[in-house]
Amino acid sequence: MIRKKRVTLHSPRRRIQLARQHRKVLLRQRSFVLTEMGLVSVAE
Length: 44
What we know:
It is built from two helices and no strands. The protein has helices at 5-9, 12-43.
């Protein structure tokens, strides 16, 4: 018997959740960088 633990690890629902989380983090980082750059350009 071969148990399919790998499938449960990478179930579509979980993958979508992770992707959504990752996208949120990326957007937050990008917005943070943009605001930092904006502040720097305004300061100059």
